[in-house]
């Protein structure tokens, strides 16, 4: 059970220091999560801390590929407008 960082990541470092398990590390082209270390914060916090602080929608996904901050959740841009403006690849919608 582990989260993953996607190509949407902008390498802002925000998530790096909030992980209770030091599971997040810098890599190229973007940060990654060590799935042997990630516990989804169970036992440490009520919510995954990386996703709680990440400013980018769809940068962190669960094992099913579902974004913890889905399109529109942070910006509050209506989903139809996101599609219209092509702000995200179709697979994120
Ligand atoms: S969900 Fe929690 S344990 Fe997993 S990478 Fe994010 S902050 Fe670390
Ligand atoms: S907070 Fe989000 S955008 Fe920033 S480094 Fe972490 S995953 Fe990437």
UniProtKB/TrEMBL annotation:
Keyword Metal-binding (UniProt): yes
Instruction: Return one GO MF term.
Output: iron-sulfur cluster binding
This protein's UniProt keywords: Iron, Iron-sulfur, Metal-binding
Report the domain of life of the source organism. Bacteria
Q: Where is the 4Fe-4S ferredoxin-type domain?
A: 1-29
Enumerate the transmembrane spans.
Answer: none
Which Gene3D superfamilies does the annotation name?
A: 3.30.70.20
Q: Which Pfam families match?
A: Fer4 (PF00037)
- Entries under SUPFAM superfamilies matching the protein: 4Fe-4S ferredoxins
The protein's name in its UniProt record:
Ferredoxin
Q: What species does this protein belong to? A: Nitrogeniibacter mangrovi
